């Protein structure tokens, strides 16, 4: 399966950033197999996503945003409708475009890494991880096993709190108040676990070039214990929620997506896995051992919720396993890693790095001369997610809107960069 | 089949918190001593501040016991939580939204790690201060990189004129 | 004294003759209406008017004003007066035929209201129909829409004529002064004729296309004047005949269903004029139902039922009054909006009718239709519902069943009407217009006459409810008034005996004054500390295509009742539209098709241009006539 993730401008013209069988590649120009639609989408990705507007007698544009209580973020969604039914969805990304990638140009690598986390705060570690990997590949920097394990654990911690947030929002939308409050409490618990693990509630500043900065050994033990408790409490809540017909009914059949179509739109992450695909970058991670992605067939909001729930439990066990493995071969210090020791290289090298973020693949293409960043290109999962969401929402009624949107777990900051 | 109300009643999640206050905060007025309604505006942050506000609403903090509530509309707000450094594209919406808030009101500005140079950020801060004043509000505090809900609640309680503490 | 009856006719005739001087013509119509009102009021307070002129044989022209005539004459003449005042300015720029037809049509209505024998009645009816048709036509425009009206009008005249023929055959006299002795066939035929004139379902389909481009005052006359004459005709005919149970029950159901249908269609209509047009259907349905329920109750023998009959009769009268006042106000306020601005759709208005007088008139009229207390519409619809609630008092099972079922439809109608009027007001009067390419200015032409008319009507809509007890006393329904629970007699309207329900719009108004007065006072004191802000929608200004369309407002109705509306979504590329239809119109369209095809086929068969056919035709006719003559 070959996915077109981006069209960065290289020194030699336009290039195509491809993800194939879990490997990132940069191909020249038009050697991607993707269709014209995706290409147009990527070229206009700073401005808009969606399927246009609908016209007709009595049809008007219901503008949701930019400031509104329901989204939880600033975003701009145009819904064409003649009443209850949504005829077309157009998402305007320009309101949240901050130009993070262009602002990285000329920055020293460490500063750029820190800045790269600002693309999306709740995918901060995944962005940092992908960026760091890109730089490490470009400059051939080796990362020791301890740091790698700690990075994997951090990625999973990020996945846990994001999934908990998504499911909390879905439960709130379905008016499952008690369930939502308990899930929300778990979400806060996960943020505190992050704090204990890496010193920041959102795992900012944890990843470094060449390594990872984790506090002391005690923090690791405590993290494992907390994660274990989160898993137990969540499993209990999750299985209880599955017997609530009301809750499941609100999610069932909403925003159904088809695997083939989603792949054509370069969708990745739990939303794609809920549609029947087993694509997951973590299958190529040897340190994870026997890793099997969680897959569902239906492709609707319920399937996405189920995939995320199972992944929470899976991630908790991964974190515990990685920490246990670290405990097993103690002694070697975690390399904090820094930009020092990287010499200026004679030519600008381009490195590619990817990470399986909570809502899909985050990929960075970084061109560096060893000291500063010459240029950077980020491919974020929310861009493709919003496109698929827009197409899947068409035909639904307004009351289904929160269940469709929240189940994809997207972020405007992530899509607009 | 779980009986949710029973489940909810039998579990106590609210915690007594050690609140902190780092930044200097203006007290907003006696009328807000017992209830403060918040309206958060994402002015262009990276989404982590939005999630911080989401965490603030959770059971461990139980904001209602402090008299702090969230509203869905600026017309019912007492304090605007301005999250992030406002982007150019959002200045006009921000101005229009602040116009809606009944006076007197305050703006609590929370910034994450600064995007631009110190000089640029300082200029933006002056602009925002002027904008808030034009709208008839008071910039009660500017918090850079809040460490967590404890700090935010501490600041809110200072705004309400109550002491920082439990 | 009775010769005074000639006065208004003479004035109308003068007005028609002087139609070249349009201003004078409409002024004469106003004066004539005023005289009619005075006559009606005098008749109600006891004076009698009657006159008869023999023509030839049994044919004579007889006019008289009895209680029923006086009632309707008073109500109708108020609306004639205000409409003609409002017509003054608009009519000046219109063809002379309009002024002539205006005067003549009202004269015809007057004749019907005071006729004492069937020929005069029929003559007045025809005059009204034909000149109303002329009013509808506009030179240079396709007359098909007006022809529909004429078709229904002639149907009604034909049924009346048939009924009268039966009466003549049975009684041998032409008099209408009958005390419940006329035969059943007469009742069925003639009352059906009157009902057709009332624009109830399924005789309403001519309205929607015709109303779109009508001047305000013409629409008002058609909506109020013509239908009111129909109501009078029905009442007169019902009082002249013996009670026919199955027919009266049918009328009640028809009226109730018509009310429901009218309110339903009015809620989803797009056209600016279609909303009040369907509202007319709804109101006349309610009047029909009230009259029929009154007849049903009147057939009983107990004191309770007699009271109920009186009450239901009063309900019919108050409904007629409410409709006359509010509908005239509605159309006068709307004026020739469409002509001046080119806006024909409700969704395009967006608060364009914001000028004070216009808005006040529209709001008052629409709220009255929405049964908002303490306006006259509220009192009228309350009375009708109370009548339906008391259906358990009726004797026969079928009567109880039909009355209850009618109550169900009426209640639905009232709810839907409220929705329809709120939607109308929201788009017509409220909201700030997003400026578009062509800047429209105030679209309502004002003259002293129209200002006076609208002002007077607004006051009447409010005042007639507050002064309802006085009004009912004047109309001769004083026995319905009482006093209870601290409300002094006779401010309370009692709906049944023994006591069933009570209402007092007078007290309501008093209480509202106090309750609303307090917050108003508080607001007035704090005004200096209030500021207005722009409407907020997420922080960005609302673009023209982001405004909620009037179609979307009503879409939920179209969807939930998609069976009734035959709702379909049409899509061509990126264009999608939701279409819904008035099913009755579809039936007529199909019937039209069939009739056209049959007519065309027949025409082609025997008017085929071949000489041989004509010769054979003539020969055949000759033979037939010979045979008949021999026989």
Could you outline the blueprint of secondary structure elements for this entry?
The complex is a heterotrimer of chains A (417), B (166) and C (631).
Chain A: E1 2-6, E2 9-10, E3 13-20, E4 23-28, H1 36-43, E5 48-50, E6 60-64, E7 76-81, E8 86-92, H2 100-103, H3 109-116, H4 124-139, H5 145-173, H6 177-198, E9 207-208, E10 211-212, H7 217-241, H8 245-251, H9 259-264, H10 270-273, H11 301-328, E11 349-357, E12 360-368, E13 373-379, H12 381-393, H13 401-408, H14 412-416
Antiparallel strand pairs in A: 1-3, 2-3, 3-4, 5-8, 6-7, 7-8, 9-10, 11-12, 12-13
Chain B: H1 4-9, E1 36-42, H2 48-56, E2 68-70, E3 79-83, H3 91-100, E4 105-111, H4 118-134, E5 137-144, H5 149-160
Parallel strand pairs in B: 1-2, 1-3, 3-4, 4-5
Chain C: H1 6-17, H2 22-44, E1 49-56, E2 59-65, H3 67-92, H4 96-114, H5 118-136, H6 144-171, H7 184-197, H8 207-211, H9 216-240, H10 245-268, H11 274-298, H12 303-334, H13 337-341, H14 356-369, H15 376-389, H16 397-428, H17 448-466, H18 468-475, E3 481-484, E4 487-494, E5 502-503, H19 505-526, H20 550-560, H21 562-565, E6 568-572, E7 575-579, H22 583-606, H23 611-630
Antiparallel strand pairs in C: 1-2, 3-4, 4-5, 6-7
Helix pairs in contact in C: 1-2, 1-4, 2-3, 2-4, 3-4, 3-9, 3-12, 3-17, 4-5, 4-9, 5-6, 6-7, 7-9, 9-11, 9-12, 10-11, 10-16, 11-12, 11-15, 11-16, 12-14, 12-15, 12-17, 14-16, 14-17, 15-16, 15-17
Descriptive overview:
The complex is a heterotrimer of chains A (417), B (166) and C (631). Chain A is an alpha+beta fold. Chain A has one domain: Cytochrome-c3 Hydrogenase, chain B, CATH 1.10.645.10. Helix content of chain A is 44%, strand content 17%. Chain A has 14 helices and 13 strands. In chain A, helix 5 packs antiparallel against helix 11, helix 6 runs antiparallel to helix 7 and helix 12 runs antiparallel to helix 13. The longest helix of chain A has 29 residues. Chain A is globular, with a radius of gyration of 21 Å. Chain B has a single domain, classed as 3-Layer(aba) Sandwich (Rossmann fold). Chain B is built from five helices and five strands, in the order αβαββαβαβα. Chain B has a five-stranded parallel sheet with strand order 2-1-3-4-5, with helices on both faces. The longest helix of chain B is centred in the C-terminal third of the chain and has 17 residues. Among the domains of chain C are: 265 residues, no CATH class; 29 residues, no CATH class; 48 residues. Helices cover 67% and strands 6% of the residues of chain C. A three-stranded antiparallel sheet of chain C has the order 3-4-5. In chain C, strands 1-2 form a two-stranded antiparallel ribbon. Chain C has a two-stranded antiparallel sheet with strand order 6-7. Chain C starts with 5 loop residues before the first helix and ends with a helix. The chains are: A alpha+beta (417), B alpha/beta (166), C mainly alpha (631).
């Amino acid at each position: 399966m070959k996915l077109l993730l981006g069209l960065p401008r290289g020194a030699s013209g336009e290039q195509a950033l491809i993800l194939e069988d879990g490997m990132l590649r940069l191909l020249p120009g038009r050697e991607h197999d993707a269709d014209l639609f995706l290409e147009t989408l990527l070229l206009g990705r700073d401005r808009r996503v969606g399927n246009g507007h609908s016209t007709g007698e009595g049809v008007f544009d219901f503008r949701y945003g930019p400031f509104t209580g329901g989204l939880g973020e600033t975003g701009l969604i145009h819904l064409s409708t003649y009443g209850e039914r949504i005829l077309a969805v157009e998402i305007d990304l320009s309101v949240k475009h901050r130009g993070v990638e262009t602002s990285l140009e000329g920055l020293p690598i460490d500063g750029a890494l820190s800045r790269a986390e600002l693309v999306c705060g709740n995918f901060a570690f995944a962005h940092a991880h992908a960026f760091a990997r890109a730089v490490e590949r470009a400059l051939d920097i080796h990362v020791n096993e301890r740091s790698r394990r700690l990075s994997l654990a951090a990625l999973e911690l990020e996945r846990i709190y994001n999934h908990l947030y998504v499911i909390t929002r879905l439960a709130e939308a379905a008016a499952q108040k008690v369930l939502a409050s308990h899930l929300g409490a778990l979400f806060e618990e996960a943020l505190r676990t992050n704090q204990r693990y890496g010193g920041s509630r959102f795992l900012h500043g944890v990843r470094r070039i060449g390594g990872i900065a984790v506090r002391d050994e005690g923090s690791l033990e405590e993290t494992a214990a907390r994660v274990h408790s989160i898993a137990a409490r969540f499993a209990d809540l999750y299985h209880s929620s599955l017997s609530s017909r009301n809750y499941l009914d609100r999610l069932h059949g909403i925003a159904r997506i088809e695997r083939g179509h989603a792949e054509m739109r370069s969708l990745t992450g739990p939303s794609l896995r809920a549609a029947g695909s087993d694509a997951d970058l973590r299958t190529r991670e040897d340190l994870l051992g026997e890793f099997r992605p969680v897959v569902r067939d239906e492709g609707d909001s319920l399937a996405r919720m189920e995939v995320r729930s199972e992944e929470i439990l899976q991630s908790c066990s991964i974190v515990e396993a990685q920490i246990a493995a670290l405990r097993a071969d103690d002694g070697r210090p975690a390399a904090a890693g820094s930009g020092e020791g990287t010499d200026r290289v004679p030519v600008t090298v381009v490195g590619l790095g990817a990470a399986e973020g909570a809502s899909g693949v985050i990929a960075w293409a970084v061109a560096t001369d060893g000291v500063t960043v010459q240029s950077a290109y980020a491919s974020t999962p929310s861009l493709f997610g919003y496109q698929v969401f827009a197409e899947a929402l068409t035909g639904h009624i307004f009351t289904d809107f929160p269940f469709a949107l929240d189940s994809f777990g997207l972020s405007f900051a992530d899509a607009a960069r | 089949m779980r009986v949710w109300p029973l489940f909810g009643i039998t579990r106590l999640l609210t915690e007594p918190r050690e609140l902190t206050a780092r930044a200097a905060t203006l007290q907003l007025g006696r009328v807000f001593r017992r209830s403060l309604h918040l309206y958060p505006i994402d002015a262009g942050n990276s989404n982590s501040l939005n999630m911080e506000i989401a965490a603030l609403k959770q059971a461990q903090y139980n904001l209602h016991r402090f008299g702090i509530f969230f509203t869905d509309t600026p017309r019912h707000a007492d304090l605007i939580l301005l999250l992030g450094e406002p982007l150019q594209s959002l200045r006009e919406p921000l101005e229009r939204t602040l116009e809606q808030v009944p006076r007197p009101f305050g703006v609590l500005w929370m910034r994450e790690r600064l995007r631009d140079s110190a000089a640029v950020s300082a200029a933006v801060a002056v602009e925002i201060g002027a904008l808030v004043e034009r709208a008839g509000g008071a910039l009660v505090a500017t918090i850079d990189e809040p460490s967590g809900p404890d700090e935010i609640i501490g600041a809110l309680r200072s705004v309400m004129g109550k002491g920082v503490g439990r | 004294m009775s010769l005074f009856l000639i006065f208004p006719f003479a004035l109308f005739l003068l007005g028609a003759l002087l139609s070249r001087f349009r201003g004078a013509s409409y002024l004469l119509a106003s004066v004539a209406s005023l005289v009619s009102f005075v006559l009606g009021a005098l008749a109600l307070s006891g004076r009698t008017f009657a006159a008869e002129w023999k023509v030839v044989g049994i044919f004579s022209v007889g006019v008289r004003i009895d209680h029923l005539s006086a009632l309707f004459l008073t109500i109708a003449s108020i609306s004639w007066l205000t409409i003609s005042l409002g017509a003054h300015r608009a009519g000046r720029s219109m063809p002379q035929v309009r002024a002539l037809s205006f005067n003549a049509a009202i004269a015809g209505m007057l004749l019907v209201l005071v006729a004492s024998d069937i020929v005069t009645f029929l003559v007045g009816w025809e005059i009204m129909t034909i000149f109303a048709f002329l009013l509808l036509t506009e030179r240079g425009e396709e007359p098909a829409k007006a022809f529909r009206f004429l078709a229904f009008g002639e149907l009604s005249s034909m049924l009346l004529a048939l009924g009268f023929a039966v009466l003549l055959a049975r009684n041998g006299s032409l008099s209408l002064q009958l005390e419940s002795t006329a035969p059943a066939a007469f009742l069925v035929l003639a009352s059906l004729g009157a009902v057709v004139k009332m624009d109830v379902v399924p005789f309403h389909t001519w309205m929607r296309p015709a109303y779109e481009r009508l001047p305000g005052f013409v629409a008002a006359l058609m909506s109020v004047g013509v239908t009111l004459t129909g109501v009078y005709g029905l009442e007169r005919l019902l009082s002249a005949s013996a009670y026919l149970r199955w027919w009266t029950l049918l009328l009640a159901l028809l009226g109730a269903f018509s009310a429901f249908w009218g309110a339903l269609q009015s809620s989803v209509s797009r056209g600016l004029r279609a909303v009040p047009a369907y509202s007319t259907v709804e109101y006349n349905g309610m009047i029909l139902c009230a009259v029929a329920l009154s007849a049903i109750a009147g057939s009983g023998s107990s004191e309770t039922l007699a009271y109920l009959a009186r009450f239901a009769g009063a309900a019919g009268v108050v409904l007629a009054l409410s409709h006359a006042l509010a509908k005239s106000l509605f159309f006068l306020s709307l004026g020739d909006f469409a002509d001046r601005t080119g806006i024909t759709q409700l969704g395009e208005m967006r608060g364009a009718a914001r000028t004070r007088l216009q808005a006040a008139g529209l709001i008052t009229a629409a709220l009255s239709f929405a049964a908002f207390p303490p306006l006259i519409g509220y009192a009228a619809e309350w009375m009708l519902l109370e009548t339906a609630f008391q259906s358990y008092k009726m004797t026969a099972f079928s009567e109880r069943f039909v009355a209850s079922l009618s109550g169900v439809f009426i209640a639905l109608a009232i709810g839907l009407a409220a929705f329809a009027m709120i939607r109308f007001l929201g788009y017509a009067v409220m909201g700030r217009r997003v400026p578009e390419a062509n800047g429209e200015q105030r679209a309502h032409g004002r003259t002293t006459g129209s200002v006076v008319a609208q002002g007077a009507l607004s006051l009447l809509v409010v005042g007639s409810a507050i002064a309802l007890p006085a009004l009912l006393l004047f109309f001769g329904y004083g026995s319905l008034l009482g006093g209870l629970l601290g409300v002094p007699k006779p401010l309370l309207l009692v709906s049944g005996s023994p006591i069933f329900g009570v209402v007092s719009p007078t007290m309501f108004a008093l209480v509202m004054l106090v309750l609303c007065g307090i917050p108003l006072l508080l607001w007035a004191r704090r005004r200096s500390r209030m500021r207005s802000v722009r409407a907020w929608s997420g922080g960005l200004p609302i673009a023209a295509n982001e405004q909620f369309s009037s179609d979307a407002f009503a879409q939920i109705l179209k969807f939930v009742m998609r069976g009734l509306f035959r709702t379909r979504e049409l899509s061509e590329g990126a264009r999608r539209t939701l279409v819904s239809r008035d099913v009755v119109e579809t039936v007529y369209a199909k019937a039209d098709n069939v009739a056209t095809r049959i007519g065309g086929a027949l025409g082609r068969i025997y008017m085929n241009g071949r000489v041989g056919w004509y010769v054979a035709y003539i020969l055949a006719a000759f033979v037939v006539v010979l045979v008949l003559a021999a026989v």
